Amino acid sequence: MTTPSPTDGWSDFLALFDACPLPQVQVGPDDAILRANAALTELLGIRPERLIGGRLVVPASGESAARLSWDDGKCEARLFAAVLVATPDYRICVVQFSNVDAMEAAARQYLLRNVQHRLRNLIASVRSIFRRTAATSDSIDHLTSHFLGRLDAIARIESNLALAERHGLELHDLVMDELAAFAVRAGEQAFLEGPDIRLRTSAATTLALAFHELGNNSIKYGALGSDGGQVWLRWWSDREQAVPMLRILWEEKSSDAPPAVRRSGFGTELLTKTIPFELDGSGTIDWTPDAFKVHISLPMTKRLLHPSD
Question: From which residue to which does the signal peptide run (predicted)?
Answer without folding.
Answer: none
